[in-house]
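Record 1 of the preview.
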Amino acid sequence: MGRILLCCVLAVLAGAPLAASASEAYPSQVLLDTGKTVTGEDIRYPATGSAKVTAQIVTIAPGAETVLHHHPAPMFAYILEGEVTVDYGAKGKQTFRPGDAFMEAIRVPHKGINAGATPVRILAVSMGADGTANVAVDK
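->
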């Protein structure tokens, strides 16, 4: 009896299609895989309260620049439109274009500059906590 049951199970399994892997079922493209910020800092999450994720679209008008600031919490950035140059002071400048993804500097003051003729749009996702600001202005 056990042999018959085993044969039946094997026959069913032999005719069944194999389950698709996750990458076959819903293909994805890795945008970023890192433990460091764009300036080489280790990514560290704040421990000031409950986890809090904030997603927003940041727009920098043509010819405009942001104030000098830093991010107390890790921030993932993805350039949707335009070209932005970020000035990290002594850490140098970097230019980002549509499709670029990066973890923004955390403790390094910086400012974004749009020297182009079209707006820059950035998907910014802050991974902070209650009690920790996503952005802090520097002087």
